[in-house]
Amino acid sequence: AVVSTQSTGNGHWMPAQEFCDICANKFDYIIKLEGEPLELWYLADKLGLWKDRAAFLKRKNKSTVIKTVKSDVWDYLKELNEDQINFLNEHFAVDLEMFDYKRM
After folding, report:
1. What is the CB neighbour count within 10 angstroms for residue 14?
2. Is 66 helix (H, G, I), strand (E, B) or coil?
3. For an engineered disulfide with 13, which of 3, 34, 38, 46 has Cβ 3.0 to 4.6 Å away?
4. Taking Cα atoms as reference points, which of 23, 19, 22 lies closest to residue 11?
5. Is 80 helix (H, G, I), strand (E, B) or coil?
6. Dihedral angle at the C-alpha atoms of 38, 53, 95, 24, nearest 10 degrees?
7. Rounded to two decimals, what is the model's pTM?
8. Which pLDDT tens digit goes with each residue over 37-78?
């Protein structure tokens, strides 16, 4: 299956480097939002939001309403064939390197 972000407009399939040119912008912070919230807490503290953390951390967007467990993701990925895995590794190659993720 080929994913085309142009036809779907689905930002979840768009590599971050397509909408966030890391080389052309100066970022003070880049954090990973999956897993433990330590990076988010660090950022909240640095931005002076620590006193408002209870309200801040309770906020949810559409994508956080459904809880995805890492094991569910890996179970899904095990169903992919070699061509699909290669496609994802190439499609997100720059993102995987930028954010220090392992290839599948």
Report:
1. 19
2. coil
3. 3
4. 19
5. coil
6. -120
7. 0.56
8. 788 888 888 888 878 777 766 766 555 555 666 677 788 888
Dig out the tokens for 19 from the structure: 């909408």
At 89, list the tokens: 């590794």
Side chain identity, residue 55: A
Tokens of 46: 């640095």
Q: b/e map of 79-101 (b: 16 or more CB within 10 Å)?
A: eeeeeeeeebeebbeebbebeee
- How far is it, in rounded angstroms, from Cα 41 to Cα 86? 35
Amino acid at 70: K
Specify the DSSP class assigned to residue 14. S
